Amino acid sequence: MERVAELEGRIKEQRAASAETPKIDRALLLQLAHDLPRVWNAPSTDTRTKQRLVHIVVREIVCDLDENTNEAVLLVHWTGGRHTEVRVARVRTGRYPGDMAPTAVDALRKLAGRWPDRELAVSLNRMRCKTGDGETWTTVRVREMRERLGLPEYDPASSDGKMISLAKAAAHFGICVGSAKSLVLKGILPATQAIKGAQWSVPVDALTSESVRIAVQRVIERRPKNYIDYQYDRLIRLPGI
Predict the structure, then answer these.
(1) In sequence order, what are the residues at sequence separation of 6 or more whose Cβ sits closer than 8 angstroms to the Cβ of residue 59?
(2) 11-49 pLDDT, tens digit each
(3) Burial class (CB in 10 A: 0-12, 13-18, 19+), 226
(4) Of 17, 24, 170, 195, which has the maximum CB count within 10 A?
């Protein structure tokens, strides 16, 4: 009986608390929905707040690729049952035009021995080279093709240490590869490619150049104050807002 009395008391407390809860104002909720873009873009809205908003208003986002238009197609499933399609152009930077792509054999003959097979696979895919059966390149497929052609394997011990990859140069400076490539394209950071679309090679001597050091420092200074927040893998951006 004591247990029953306790439960009945808790039920009364819950009912009293529910009675004090303000009623949902539909008009106010609709007004808040219209204010979402303004809240999202407000300078005072930090990354954590945006993440909370996304969890509230979005159930899931399904991504597909439209090869005909070279776009990423995002289907946003909103809380409440509505759906929105958002199309985002895929980046073409660094890609060969389809009619200018070299053959895989020609590319491998020029690149083999310069880079590990994994990096060669990345370069071949970037240049839109295909395997004989129309597949993309993987480390295993590159190794098999290289061995059939009798091409040398990459040996880091044979390197003279005068050149490093663009990724290693970016890591040395503490910036992303995209920023390092931007410095290359501007002619600030010296770098070369064996063929267009291949990995960039950066002279080690350039890492200590005063002009390069100044340019890198400017890149770092332009970072937003919440730069670290944008490094989280779980960060979600809301398309279209």
Answers:
(1) 77, 78, 79
(2) 888 887 776 666 767 777 777 777 888 888 888 888 888
(3) exposed
(4) 170
What residues are paired with 203 via a beta bridge? 163
The phi-psi region of residue 187 (left if phi > 0; otherwise alpha if psi is between -120 and 50; otherwise beta) is left
Tokens in use for 223? 């970072």
Strand partners, 192: 201
Nearest to 237, CA basis, from 63, 53, 17, 13 = 53
- Does residue 124 sit in helix, strand or coil? helix
Length of the chain as a residue count: 241
Q: Which two tokens stand for residue 5?
A: 């009395």
Nearest to 95 by CA among 206, 178, 198, 237: 198
The dihedrals phi and psi of 235, each to the nearest 5 degrees, come to -65, 130
How many C-beta atoms lie closer than 10 Å to residue 111's C-beta? Answer: 24
Q: Whole-prediction pTM value?
A: 0.49
Chain segment 182-200, per-residue pLDDT in tens: 999 999 999 988 888 788 8
Residues near 169 by beta carbon (within 8 Å), at least 6 away in sequence: 180, 189, 191, 202, 206, 207
The upper half-sphere exposure of residue 105, i.e. CA atoms within 13 Å in the direction of its Cβ, equals 4
Asked whether the beta carbons of 166 and 177 are under 8 A apart, the reply is yes
Label residue 197 left, alpha or beta by phi (over 0 means left) and psi (-120 to 50 means alpha). Answer: left
Give residues with Cβ within 8 angstroms of 123, minimum separation 6.
107, 111, 115, 197, 198, 199
